Amino acid sequence: MADSLRIGIAGLGTVGSSLVRILQQRSKELAITCGRAIEIIAVSARDRSRDRGLDLAGITWFDTPEDMAKKAEIDVFVELVGGASGAAEKAVRAALARGIHVVTANKALLAKHGVELAVMAEEKGALLNFEAAVAGGIPIIKALRESLTGNHVSRIYGIMNGTCNYILTKMEKEGLSFEACLKEAQRLGYAEADPAFDIEGNDTAHKLAILTTLAFGSKISADDIYLEGISNITIEDIQAASDLGYRIKLLGVAHVTESGIEQRVHPTMVPLDSVIAQVDGVTNAVAVESDILGELLMVGPGAGGNATASAVLGDIADIAKSRPGVQQVPVLGRPAKSLSEYRRAKMKSHEGGYFIRLTVKDKAGVFASIATRMAENNISLESIVQHSRVHTEGGPQTIILVTHATMEDAIRKAVKAIKSEKYLVNEPQVIRIERT
Ligand SMILES: NC(=O)c1ccc[n+]([C@@H]2O[C@H](COP(=O)([O-])OP(=O)(O)OC[C@H]3O[C@@H](n4cnc5c(N)ncnc54)[C@H](OP(=O)(O)O)[C@@H]3O)[C@@H](O)[C@H]2O)c1
């Protein structure tokens, strides 16, 4: 049998601890599968004294990940620390500078420095694998990077944040408010104490930016994503969506348009009978539309120690199975230096259906005025109804509009005109409808 693959693991938290356990429990089996043993020879985390319930006997401890990356006699540096910069970034750079392969689950790091790190890895002949960075255990990176080579991808979309999907699912199933469901998500450990990163869509945006690069061959551009979170989704929206045959999901969507690539993260109405609408709770799903293959939908666990460690393990095993001198898969699906500049399509030019919920004063002429403002902006309506579930006699009325495919710019202008009429009781709710 070939020499063992020596790995160093930085980060022994949720994912790192699971990985150590799995590697130790399945060491014999993995050695047979990979043709060589995978040996943990070094680890690093912040607190050496913490009891992690792990057997770290015989494994060298490093006080910093960077130190481990610089000094340990390892073949693979596994980064499970997290964060766009700081300890994780320094250590990954140090490992790549030595030509050591890197496996990471860190979407924040890749969203910010991915192209630069890919160039570095390719110059050094090192691999940089990151299956766990997007949608946890779902093997979407491998699918895009390897299996779909030669396909022209036209659209990629998905549910990539388990916390948001858990909250939206619970709101619908139990009729609870966003705030109540967020508290429950925090109690169960799905949401961080500061959940803004998840619920405002930033986490999904990081993952989408990575997928966009793999799908369309443009440089990672996480700051160029149109972003709307789920914090202003109400139970009324969810009920109205259901009455109209839709379900609300936080989707990340990227597709090619004539003016560039559209990348957006926002609450989205998807048809109730679509497969993606059935993806509940913390589960993730990613769909890819491409010309040769057609439609691909992958559904599975998007987070959690074991699911994420499974993806990390797959990346390590790929390296264990690879042989020196054999052509490696480029980090971002094509040589990093050949990635094109990202050309952002303007959100104003987005075309699709819209759901608009207006809460208005109960007075004559409001209905007609709304219809007129829509017509003035050439918006064709599929329906305009007074929503009876929330109707109280004499009190504010809820009017729900659903449009046919129209331009975002027209919707913005029409909503602005309606707001100037002074019959609105509160801010209009606008939710995009996605064909799935
Ligand atoms: N958890 C998931 O479900 C999941 C899913 C997909 C991707 N990921 C990604 O996987 C990575 C790890 O996530 P996680 O949930 O396992 O995180 P975690 O539980 O917070 O663990 C982080 C680990 O990194 C160590 N660490 C943090 N800062 C450090 C520093 N400055 N120097 C040395 N060690 C440091 C911590 O040490 P101490 O233990 O001593 O504090 C801890 O062991 C992140 O990039 C995350 O985005 C996680």
UniProtKB/TrEMBL annotation:
The keyword Transferase does not apply. Residues 355-436 form the ACT domain. It comes from the Bacteria. The active site is at K207 (proton donor). One of its GO terms (molecular function) is NADP binding. Its EC number is 1.1.1.3. It is an enzyme of class 1 (oxidoreductase). Belongs to the homoserine dehydrogenase family. This is Homoserine dehydrogenase. It comes from Rhizobium skierniewicense.
